[in-house]
Amino acid sequence: MRVVCYLLVAALWLPAAAQEAGDTTAVSDTVAMTLEQAAAAGDMVSQYNLGNHYYNDGDAVTAVQWWTRAAEQGLDLAQSLLGQCYANGIGVDADVAQAAKWYNKAAEQGDPVAQYRLGVYYENGTGVKRDMARAVALYTASAEQQCAGGMNNLGQCYQHGKGVKRDIERALELYRGAADDGLAAAQYNLGVCYDKGIGVEANAEEAFMWYRVAAEQGMEEAQYNLGLCYQDGYGVNKDAEEAASWFRQAAEQGYTAAQRSLANCYLTGEGIAKDADYAVLWYQEAAKGGDVQSLYSLGLCHDEGWGVTPDPAKAADYYRQAAEQGDVAAQYRLAWCYDNGRGVKRDFHAALTWYQQAARGGNTEARTWLQKNGYSW
Hints:
Largest sheet: none
CATH architecture of the domain at 1-13 and 29-146: Alpha Horseshoe
CATH topology of the domain at 1-13 and 29-146: Serine Threonine Protein Phosphatase 5, Tetratricopeptide repeat
Shape: elongated
Mean pLDDT: 93
Low-confidence stretches: 1-32
Helix content: 55-70%
Strand content: under 5%
């Protein structure tokens, strides 16, 4: 049985020994007492189950109190859940050190979910000192128990050579195992491998298929890539409306590249009703998320009056922000602004500096201007 590593709370759990056909005493005794009485009497399984009851009733604070009592008695399921509570601030204040502590206790007892999540902490140095070798060991232990999260993360280690020797075939094997269990992250990773030809022959149809199943589970990166597939006709017939729809789903989850692509759709009317006002709104959202290309696009909108009142000064400011972050097209436009005094005071030295910067980045218009005026880059 494979384990998909999500935050799940079981409705009821009893020790395996108590469920064996020849051992009904433990079950009978537990049923004879109310759950509250058994938990109060110190039965850790009842404490765990009572915590589940309170959690499912919407009382996470009381749930954590009972899970803590069970965890302190050594119940690995409670320890793992308690780790997730501290990690995510469920019923308690978020505390990564406490999360790591409880994940470690559960992991030492062989809980695959805790092993996976503790591995993530060691990989990223969250609540513990970063230790890639320890992370790999935990992912391996988790993956050996068929935990989908552990398999996926171990696959990433093998793909990128993090803490282990790079082994693409092993990575693909692990991705497939986790993807077959429905883990969206592994499905997405497989899609990327087929998209880019990593360890397999590039296959647009396979890439599209894996992006699709991951996207349908709500993974924003997969939704964005699926939109690109529809936009470009990669592995599927071109469909501008489908592309815009998937861009929107990823954009609404805050995925900046999708926000920019959705803005482009609104600006051009590709797959969606043309609306420059909405284009500007989505470019602004993407820019807030750090998307440099959207800063450049906002410059164009203010330059040309697309969805906003023309404002050369604002346009130049957006170009500057993007140019300073390395956007070559923005560097050229900023140079042109200084060259022509549009939105800024005319400044030949600044214009030349930005023309040369853009030219070094490969901008052909900047190179043409420099060659025409006898300057190198």
